[in-house]
Amino acid sequence: MATELKPENTPQALLEEYRHGFHDSEEKYVFKSGKGLTREIVERISAMKDEPAWMREFRLRAFEVFESKPMPTWGDTALLSEIDFANIHYFVRSTDRAEQSWEDVPDDIKRTFDRLGIPEAERKFLSGVSAQYESEVVYHSVKAELERDGVLFCDMDTAVKLYPEIVQKYLSTIIPINDNKFAALNSAVWSGGSFVYVPKGVTVAMPLQAYFRINTENMGQFERTLIIADEGSKVHYIEGCTAPKFSTSSLHSAVVELIALEGASIRYTTIQNWYRNIFNLVTKRAVARKNATVEWVDGNIGSRLTMKYPAIYLMGEGARGEILSMAFAGEGQHQDAGAKVIHGAPHTTSVVTNKSVTAHGGKTTYRGLVEVYPNAHHSKTRVKCDALLMDDISSSDTKPTMKIDEQFATVEHEASVSKIGEDQLFYAMSRGLAEADATAMIVNGFFDFFIKELPMEYAVELNRLVKMEMEGAVG
Amino acid sequence: MAGQRIADFASIAPGTTRPYKLDGVDILLCNVGGEFYAIEDYCTHDGAPLDAGTLEGRCIVCPRHGATFDVTTGEALTLPAVMPVPSFPVRREGDEIVVEV
User: Which of A178, A182, A255, A314 to mutate to test the interface with B (most CBs of B within 10 A)?
Assistant: First the structure.
């Protein structure tokens, strides 16, 4: 029987389709780019998103930079060398119905959901089975409130179409394409991520979360987030969650840019708990103008290798920055995290607090930078980093750098590495606690500075998670 | 008047740059639409030479991390650069460009 060839089914069209390797309905994807990255794939991503020419040019320029940039020669180069760029799908668009089946989610993640007490609907969202979190009621009430105040909150793909002037004005001004190889990669293939613009003088009362931003690309490998707080405004954004986040893709590289204009305030809270096969290489940077405040609250629990150093550029007189971070590294994990603060204006202040716990042979690295430029007089900075080792096979490095080019500046640095105290454990156990409970209590106390900055439900989950991670941790 | 003759007016095309060393200072001569400007050939962010960067209008983009500077004033336009790059007076004498360092 002869089959009529429709234009999209001609051998030519099918060949074209096959060359890019997309439309694999067997795998429940609407589109899946072929492995590896080429100029054609970047163009294809832009075309599929129906983007304006300026964004296509931006992506292509970034692709050229990505090709020309070498891999970092610092950090965990042995682990980094395992990334096989030619073996990665750079763009996967899922169907609206499901990304993968619940059966594909690893048992250890399901057990963790159970023990953390994560609600059923949320479990499916978190593990990528459901593309949308069932929170539409909450979402609509939040949305009405935001619209009333003129707050713009949507995913970046939508922002490029609806608010091109704002996106063009600010995108990539804090993290240039050339900044590093992974920022260039993100700029070339980004998809999803949040866009927030808070008008002058508006305070957003409740924290904004991606949960409320209904779209189908929440689980992006290469998320791009841009938050602009206009003069005198205030906003808190929360990314991630304490529950483990399952993903089939091995490389995740987000770029987050925060812009706090005069007198504005931004707090950005992240709890990263990627599954332990994932390379999480993120560039996060903020600028604080005159009398503005930026706070990064950054927790790193999951992933195989995380390299993340949230930065704040204090570029106006009286600007203030605070970075609170915690890291946990277990077996096979390396948390290479830290903080950067650049004092580029007078009377600026910053506080960096970093604490890490390492167990089961894991590794943590604190890598930090404080830089005080000439004329940033009367600036003050305080850096404190503490590492807690749970056994003899785990390791922790502290690599702080301080460049001070201004005479009238106050700089404090404090660091400690300690092993969990036998006497503390003995005391707690003599009061009737089991060893695991005693250890969890001590570690939770160690992370208390971080946990108390989180919204209630996150704090509860994180406490439980720490307890789980600590089981059998003392060696 | 002080200054050193470093180039023929016609030898550097508009939209291009050329590095020189004057009195131990690395400078970068930039032709912005027929007007010449000189800045230090050194990114104040990380010390990379700017001569390998691209000149887009009056902005030069550092090839290492993407910081941009206004070559007419030396001003740092985007992060990660914070400090301006030093700029030097340039004038034309006949067919030659003279820079004062």
Answer: A178
